[in-house]
């Protein structure tokens, strides 16, 4: 059985192992700290303890529970969402009783031994062999420990008893941690372990490593009797020494010593280049080494320059950030390092550079991963909208900082959230933090910072143009279902990108906080509108905003809208990195060809490809790049351009159609067929027919009323109708024009004229134009089709996700396919959603139970609307849709956020403006081709 070790950033090692295990923290030193896990290490590696709960499910019986865990997820107690817990009293006020028997090896005799709890919700009383280990710990999100040396039976079995109350005896802790807008749980949900150190030992260290190579480490000692010096040596991660060792003498009973050294040109830490080092600190006496600890750190300097901005290593930064709950659906707040790696990679894949811990300190392994993969962190003291009292808060500030102080990723502390701020705690932060990081109070103005939440664009523009604080909303674009996040972000980011006072912002929130209800058959509960706020689903399913954010926050900026025949391969590119020269990245191009409708394959074919030579371009600058396109490139269907960063991480792939919609249509629809279309009529209808297809038009309103081919009737019709200000029907007529037959419909109103041409091969051509003046939610034409008959869609356009007027970025131009679903974003997680608007449809095949309907557009910039998404009941994120089922739109509606309507957010969220007078020129319209099964014959077999 293998033991796999990975380094904890707090000077210890977390371990994936077969239990029990004793691991030395300083593996290359016999004088390192040793650890023995009493629990498992994460949600996937747990140890059963004896357990009883006094209220709720399975109360009153002694049984077992895996540790770490939240007891609600294991079938005990009752579920509560934040501020609701008081409504379910007394059952929600539960006490869990834990017992665990363990032994301590004889080799630990004479050592100082502590028991460490990484987190227990909320009040924890600890006993060893029936005796109290110390004062009850209060506060559910913090590491705490007790010296239990005198309580242990060395070499024998010991009894650990822990009484955990999910509701604190301190009312300010309940108000800060449980009267909150997030799920609240109970239990020992993070690991528990023993630490054994020499009697005289290093208690902890606090590093301050600057970008100029200035290094200092505060070394805190305990029980010093004979030790006479402390020594430090810095190493690279591969074990190479950086400079020489340096030391300080130990005299008297002082418990803190500071060691200093100056290094020359160390590799700096940043999110783009997360270079790390290790400092090895040794406590020595006359005979040599007494105790050794190792701590990982990074050289970097963080500075807030008043009326200017945040600077890291002398470079001005803008946060492209997100808020993150520590959460997993079937384990609550019990997580794993693997999940931390997953989440940080997802953030970085969205081109984010920052994350805010909302609203409590995360697992230490999450910060480890932020250090190693590179992500700025705001580390937060809990206090959702109420603060800890000063006595409790001062203890928890200390526990927060001494655990997390050495993470280079942590560049700001947050003293509570949205009014949950105890100003009396502010002086405590620099006491434990030798780096004296800036402290903020999210939603408030504090010092030189303004972090006001959920602004509209007018507020952002005003404070950046006329204010004097560094502005970065620590919550912005509040997601709800499919609203927020990417919707409106482009407008906000353009303003933030230009302003010197902007330090960016943090989206709310990373993932839906949906919990598996073990009391309700395992359904995932997002507590109504409280928790379906994520860019991702609870199991990290990607919503459309994931890709929108990825494009808007791409550190390589290319704002090319179209590729025209005059394109000479030159593109303007902007470097929006903060520490990376453009020539450290890679940019590859490819010319592709797409399949046609009803081809068996949907993937594209690469015709030509190559690499773009990138210029030396520092952050903040723009230049030009050149793609060496081959002769005849215009014959390709599309151009793809893919960027990767210096570490090979995908930044974004830009896609442009090369051919116009009319060129695609010409290659698909044969308009020169020698076959002949014809027509007939009766009192009610005109019938056009060719190659086995018949289309029926109602003579009283001009609408299609029925379609059939040789095999099937197709329930497509009741259109086209203009989606607003529908025109008044005047007349319908038809005539032969060579091999084609034409139906003309005359209107009084916006639609001036509408005509159908039945081609001899059975394709139906629709030409329509209309003129409008005013502001509209949407505009286009619409048809009806029974939703229950639809099976899926394949189309060439931008996808596969739907779009809104204020969320157009992210989709890729390609052939996409998706099955029908009735997904409600944030309640169901079958993505991408089927229903909604789809951008830049060139052709589409709607699969159904009758016969596939193929539509080809000869007009660029047509949106394909597929049905109406199921309403959520939340007005801001339930955009208005036109009548009908399948529509072809020139303009579509935007979407809002949880707190704001779309028009309150930004210009992209306002209505569509049609400003030309209808009598001046042709304004809007399209040419569409429909294939309802031309030439279809029954299979002979």
From TrEMBL:
Record keywords: Calcium, Glycosidase, Hydrolase
Database matches in InterPro entries: Bact_Beta-galactosidase, Beta-gal/glucu_dom_sf, Gal_mutarotase_sf_dom, Galactose-bd-like_sf, GH, GH-type_carb-bd, Glyco_hydro_2, Glyco_hydro_2_cat
Domain Glycoside hydrolase family 2 immunoglobulin-like beta-sandwich, first and last residues per copy: 201-300
Gene3D superfamilies per UniProt: 2.70.98.10, Galactose-binding domain-like (2.60.120.260), Glycosidases (3.20.20.80), Immunoglobulins (2.60.40.10)
Sequence ranges assigned to domain Glycosyl hydrolases family 2 sugar binding in this UniProt record: 61-198
Cofactor: Ca(2+)
One Pfam family cited in the UniProt record for this chain: Glyco_hydro_2_C
GO CC annotation, single: beta-galactosidase complex
Keyword Calcium attributed: yes
Similarity field: Belongs to the glycosyl hydrolase 2 family.
Protein name according to UniProt: beta-galactosidase
């Amino acid at each position: 059985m293998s033991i796999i070790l990975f380094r904890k950033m707090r000077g210890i090692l977390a371990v994936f192992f077969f239990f029990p295990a004793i691991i030395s923290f300083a593996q290359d030193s016999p004088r390192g700290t040793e650890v023995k896990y009493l629990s498992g290490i994460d949600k996937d590696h747990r140890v059963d303890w004896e357990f009883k709960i006094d209220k709720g499910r399975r109360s009153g019986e002694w049984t077992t529970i895996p540790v770490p865990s939240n007891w609600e997820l294991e079938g005990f107690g009752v579920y509560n969402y934040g501020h609701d817990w008081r409504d379910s009293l007394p059952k929600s006020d539960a006490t869990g009783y834990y017992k665990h028997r363990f032994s301590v090896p004889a080799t630990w005799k004479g050592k100082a031994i502590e028991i460490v709890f990484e987190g227990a919700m909320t009040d924890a009383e600890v006993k060893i062999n029936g005796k109290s280990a110390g004062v009850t710990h209060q506060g559910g999100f913090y590491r705490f420990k007790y010296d239990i040396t005198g309580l242990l039976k060395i070499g024998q079995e010991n009894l650990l008893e822990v009484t955990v109350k999910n509701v604190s005896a301190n009312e300010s802790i309940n108000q800060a941690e449980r009267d909150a807008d997030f799920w609240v749980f109970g239990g020992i949900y993070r690991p528990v372990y023993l630490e054994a150190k020499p009697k005289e030992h290093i208690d902890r260290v606090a590093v301050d490593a600057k970008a100029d190579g200035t290094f200092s480490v505060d070394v805190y000692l305990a029980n010093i009797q004979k030790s006479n010096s402390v020594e430090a040596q810095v190493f690279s991660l591969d074990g190479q020494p950086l400079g020489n060792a340096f030391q300080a003498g130990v005299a008297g009973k002082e418990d803190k010593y500071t060691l200093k050294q100056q290094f020359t040109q160390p590799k700096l830490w940043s999110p783009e280049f997360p270079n790390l080092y290790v400092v090895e600190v040794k406590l020595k006496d006359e005979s040599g080494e007494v105790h050794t600890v190792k701590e990982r750190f990074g050289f970097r300097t963080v500075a807030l320059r008043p009326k200017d901005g945040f600077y890291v290593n002398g470079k001005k930064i803008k946060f492209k950030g997100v808020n993150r709950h520590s959460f997993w659906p079937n384990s609550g707040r019990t997580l794993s390092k693997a999940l931390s790696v997953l989440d940080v990679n997802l953030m970085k894949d969205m081109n984010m550079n920052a994350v805010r811990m909302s609203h409590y300190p995360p697992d230490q392994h999450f910060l480890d991963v932020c250090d190693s993969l590179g992500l700025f962190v705001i580390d937060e003291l809990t206090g959702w909208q109420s603060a800890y009292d000063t006595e409790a808060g001062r203890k928890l500030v200390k526990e927060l900082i001494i655990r997390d102080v050495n993470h280079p990723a942590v560049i700001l502390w947050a003293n509570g959230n949205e009014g949950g701020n105890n100003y009396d705690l502010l002086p405590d932060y620099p006491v434990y933090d030798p780096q004296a990081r800036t402290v903020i109070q999210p939603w408030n103005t504090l010092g030189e910072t303004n972090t006001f939440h959920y602004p509209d664009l007018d507020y952002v523009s005003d404070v950046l143009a006329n204010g004097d604080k560094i502005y970065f909303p620590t919550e912005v674009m509040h997601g709800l279902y499919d609203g927020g996040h990417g919707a409106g972000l482009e407008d906000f980011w353009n303003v933030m990108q230009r302003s010197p006072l902007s330090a960016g912002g943090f989206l709310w929130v990373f993932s839906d906080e949906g919990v598996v209800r073990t009391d309700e058959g395992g359904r995932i509960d997002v507590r109504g509108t409280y928790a379906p706020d994520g860019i991702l689903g609870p199991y990290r399913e990607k919503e459309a905003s994931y890709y929108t954010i990825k494009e808007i926050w791409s550190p390589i900026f290319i704002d090319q809208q179209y590729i025209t025949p005059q394109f000479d391969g030159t593109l303007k590119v902007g470097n929006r990195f903060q520490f990376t020269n453009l020539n450290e990245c890679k940019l590859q191009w490819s010319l592709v060809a797409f399949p046609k409708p009803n081809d068996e394959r949907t993937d594209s074919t690469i015709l030509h490809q190559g690499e773009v030579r990138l210029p030396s371009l520092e952050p903040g600058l723009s230049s030009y790049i050149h793609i060496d396109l081959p002769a005849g490139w215009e014959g390709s269907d599309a151009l793809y351009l893919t960027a990767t960063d210096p570490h090979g991480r995908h930044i974004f792939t830009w896609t442009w159609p090369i051919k116009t919609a009319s060129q695609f249509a010409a290659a698909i629809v044969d308009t020169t067929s020698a076959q002949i279309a014809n027509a007939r009529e009766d009192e009610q209808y005109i019938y056009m027919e060719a190659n086995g297809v018949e289309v029926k038009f109602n003579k009283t309103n001009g609408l299609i009323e029925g379609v059939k081919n040789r095999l099937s009737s197709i329930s497509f019709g009741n259109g086209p109708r203009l989606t607003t200000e529908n025109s008044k029907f005047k007349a319908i007529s038809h005539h032969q024009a060579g091999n084609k037959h034409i139906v003309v419909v005359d209107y009084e109103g916006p639609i001036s004229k509408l005509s159908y041409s039945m081609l001899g091969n059975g394709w139906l051509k629709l030409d329509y134009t209309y003129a409008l003046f005013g502001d509209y939610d949407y505009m286009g034409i619409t048809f009806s089709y029974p939703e229950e008959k639809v099976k899926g869609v394949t189309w060439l356009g931008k996808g596969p996700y739907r779009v809104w007027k204020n969320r157009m970025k992210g989709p890729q131009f390609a052939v996409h396919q998706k099955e029908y679903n009735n997904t409600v974003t944030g309640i169901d997680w079958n993505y991408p959603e089927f229903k909604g608007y789809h951008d830049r449809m060139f052709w589409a095949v709607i699969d159904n139970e009758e016969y596939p309907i193929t539509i080809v557009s000869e007009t660029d910039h047509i949106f394909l609307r597929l049905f109406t998404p199921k309403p959520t009941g939340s007005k801001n994120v339930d955009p208005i849709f036109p009548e009908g089922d399948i529509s072809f739109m020139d303009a579509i509606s935007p979407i809002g956020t949880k707190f704001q309507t779309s028009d309150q957010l930004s210009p992209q969220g306002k209505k569509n403006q049609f400003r030309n007078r209808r009598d001046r020129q042709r304004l809007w319209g399209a040419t569409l081709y429909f294939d309802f099964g031309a030439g279809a014959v029954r299979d002979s077999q």
